[in-house]
Every structure is written in structure tokens, then in C-alpha cells.
């Protein structure tokens, strides 16, 4: 059955029932003009929105709709994590052709439901609208969350002389995309890069470890990596009005990335410029080094110190982020990360 | 200049500067992973999202981009009004081809800025993403607002035996669209339906009058009319588990609609089924009749009693909403309002 046979309002009814959840903080969920929730006393309200567009962020030829639903929720939740907050509520604005199959929609929402459950978030509202038959699907998620003002971590808090840390190994999602683009959906199970494929299709927001970093006050600035490490670090440095020096030998390279780099005799463009990792990038003072190492051990999530912050150097030809190689020379990247309009 | 020459990040920088506004409730606006605001103590947080899709909701052949920006904000604000709330913050998720002109974008944001100013709302964040060159523009707005729990008006509160009221004259936006589709942009100044054209291109949310209705407790249920009066009233009746009887002779018909109906010898399909009015539809008890009439006089916004609520009649062939004509017979509508997937 296609959406045009089901209709918008019956679909909203189905979603209203599927996602209705007794929760003392939700006064009104799906089905009214607005959702109404009770914010926690004394906390800051966090909000963010993200969009996944067909043929830009995903392709129906290789993105299973359930994973798309999971990713739609998880990439927004990742923004809350990046501020040190707790995600609470989700709204989804979906623009789809009326010819799309009901099975696509139900799988998508199955993924949404799963991810909402894993993140302890509740889908409270959204919007459904149509688009012409051949137009791309555009999926927008909105997340609301909260954080104590004293625990909130922004991009603006870094100072020179601090350490730069990342979770995970950068570029894995981009490597996964390379696998999917070369082998199609079979890459999910058979690609030499299948762990990376999983990172592209089903990223996991680092909410728990980010909350610990925030609660313990371990970071001076933080963001999630969605546009590629080089580009994201430049954004963080710019927001904090500092410079950043990364030692390329310190950058963690996943086993699959090692294989890829060896087979393709490429430089570090994929790990440094590949987007959609949704890992954490943060800065911390020397005094927090041991706590951060302990946190990595306890959580099982690798946290790696990759460099240090510096005073901003306006004369730098590469902006204010330098990648220094083993020989002491600066690495020149061909690509500076994803820009939607470039 | 096209967006692809400007780039996503420079555009975000421009927007961050344009919309940065010192406000004690905004801790973080545009430029971080999330926006962070301080919710008011003891109030419910309202949230809603709406999408305007090219060739479904608007056409670049006749929609001036500034008015599109205004509409994008105003239709979300209208959802807050419909709950009796106060709009506060806006986020925008825009999906546009990289080939779009910078002038389109700057005009769009000029409209956003105007509407934010008129509604005393602040743009605090959003997302920019690209889409293929020929794909439709998809514009999503998110609004956050607040209301005292005791003043919140939902769709679910109506009971049988109450009066049904609407603000304005229904179907004006749909008539405006008919004018635009027949005469193109010249309809804005020269169409016989130019007031209706203005209603389509530049709807005004009924925030102020809705706040008064909420503060004074005048309505038992309320919503805004976006899918057409017949469809919206059916949704309200369903949510409240009641029926509704509307006398067609009571429906306010604007002078332009009168001309249109006479020239086209049509029934009431345009006024009853035309969408995008963003007027208020509400129910009220007899005891509030005089206060409502006084409010209409004071505000200058027409409020008309068009019928009464009834017990739900499951056997009704027209769902649970009846439009009764002067001769006592039930009106059969060809069209029951807009469904995105039908």
C-alpha cells in the first residue's frame, strides 16, 4: 500500500497511538496543534534540528529504512550530547512523496521507536507533508533536552594550552559510505569495511559519556563531529577564538581505515575530512587528564588526546588549525570537510 | 551570487550575526550544537513544527521570498496561538539547492526577521542542508512557546451543547491561491481577489486574540484552521469525541468570496474546504457568549458563531460534522479538506 491510499490523517492517528506514552512530563503528545511538556525547574532547555535528505545524506538503494529512522533520531540526540545534556523529546517533520510505500514508513518509524527507546526520549509531535513523486525525501528531526546551566558545555569555552580529545576513530562513517557506494547494500554484511558501514548507517550518539564529562566538569568546550574532524575542529577553534595543533601520529586509525589507507595509498583526507561520525570532540585542562583516561577505561569508549590548543594565529594560511606530521611539517589537506553548498 | 559560492558556514555566520539578540532567556543562540534557553518557571513548554514545500505549498513563480519567510514563521506561531500560548523561539531547517540565489536566501531571512519581530520571537537555531539542483525547496520551521497549564486550550475539551466559533472568513487563503494560479504574481496587486491573495501569501497568526481567549478561559477547545474548516472541525470533533452542526447561512463570506461564488456558481466548497487560513476555530459555553462578542468588538477581528456541538453520532454518513443549509437539508461537500497524501 502507498501513502496516498492510507492518507495523512489515518497515518497521524496510527502514530499517535504507537507513540502515546504515559509520562508525567508530557501533557500533550501527537494529535494537537502543539505538543506540551513540563520543563524541569532550574534547567536550561536545549533544542536542535537536523535534516537527512535523500541523495545527499542517504540513498534508498542502500539505506535500510529502519536504520534511517534510527539515524534521524540519533543525530539530533548527538547534538544534545555535545552540550552535555539529556535528550527528552523528539519531533519529526517528514516530507515524502505520496507514492512512497507504507512499509517504508512503518520501517522508518520502527527505527524511530527503537532509537527513542534507547535514548529514553519520547516522540511528541511533528509534521507530515507531501512532495512531488520524483522529489527527494526530506526528513527533519527536532530534539528537546535539558542541562543544568553550570554543566552545559559550549564550543566557545576552550583556551590556549589545553588538550584536544576525540572519542572513537575519525572518518569511519565516511569509509562506510565509500563501502556502500562501491558495493551497494551487500556492503552491510560483506564489505571489508563493514564495521565502518555500520557506523555510517547507524551512528550511536555518545550521550552517556558526554553526560559524565559534563557532570564532572572535565571539558572546557565540546561539539559532535558531523562535518569531519578538520572542519569541526576549525569551527570549535573559531568559536573559542583559539588555534589548534593536532599531531597526525596521535590520530586513532581504525583497523578498517588502516586497510583502506594502505590499499589506496591515500593521505589522511578520509579520517580527517570524512563527516557524519557523531563522535565527541572536546578540550580539557591538564588537571583533568587522569579522570578522562579513567572514563575511557570505564566506558569502553576510546578517548584519544590528539593535540593541543594554541593562541589564535591570524596569519596561518590554513585557518587556525594545524595538522603536524611526524617530520614536523604541516599536512595540507585536499578537502576541508563537508559544506552543504560547496 | 549563488549559495554554492557563498557556502554553508559563511551563511551560518551571517545568520548568527543577523539574529544574535541579547535576551536574558537565550543562553546560546545560532552557532553551537544546540540552542539553549531558560524556560519560564511553572509553565508548560509548547512545541510545534511545520513545513512549506515548493510546488506543494508555494511556487517561486508567484511567492515573493520575503513573504515566504514571514509565512514560515507565522504558520508555526499560529500553532502556539491555537493552544492559547505565547510564542518565544524559532528554529528553521532549510533544504535548498546550492544553485539558489543568495538574494532569495537574504529576502527569505528578511521575512523571517520581520515576522520574528512582529511575534516577539527570537530565531535561536536551525539547520541548512542542500538538495539536488532540480529538487524542491523544503522549509521547516519549529516554534517553542509557553502557556500556563491552567490556560492551555486543546482540541479535546469540547462537550455537546456548546457554540462553535471561527475568526475571520473561511476559505480566503484558498481563494487567494486560485487568484495566483490564474493570474500569477500580478494577482498580488491586480486580482479581483487581491485581499484573499494577501491572506494566502502572508497569513497573520491570531496570537493576541487567542491569548485573551486563553487568559479569560473563554474556550473549551481550540485549533487553528490550516486544512480547511470542514476538515479541521472534523478533527476537533473527533479529538473531543463529539459531533458538530454548522448552519451554512451563519458562515461569514468575505466580499471577494461572494464575487467568486457568484461568478463561478459554485457551492461552498472553497469556503468550507479551502486550507491555509490560520484562523482560530473554537468552542465555548453559552455563558461566555457576551465576553466573546465584546472581544470581537475590541479586537477588530470578526468572531462568528457558526453552529453548535452535539453528541457524537456514529451512524452519520458524513463523519460527525453536519453542514445544514437554509432548507434544513444537509450539504454534501465534494471535497473534505486537504490531505497531504490523498
Automatic annotation (TrEMBL), chains A, B:
Pfam families: AIRS (PF00586), AIRS_C (PF02769). It is an enzyme of class 2 (transferase). One of its GO terms (biological process) is thiamine biosynthetic process. One of its GO terms (molecular function) is thiamine-phosphate kinase activity. This is Thiamine-monophosphate kinase. The keyword Kinase applies. Its EC number is 2.7.4.16. Keywords: Kinase, Transferase. Residues 31-147 form the PurM-like N-terminal domain. InterPro entries: PurM-like_C_dom, PurM-like_C_sf, PurM-like_N, PurM-like_N_sf, ThiL-like. Residues 160-315 form the PurM-like C-terminal domain.
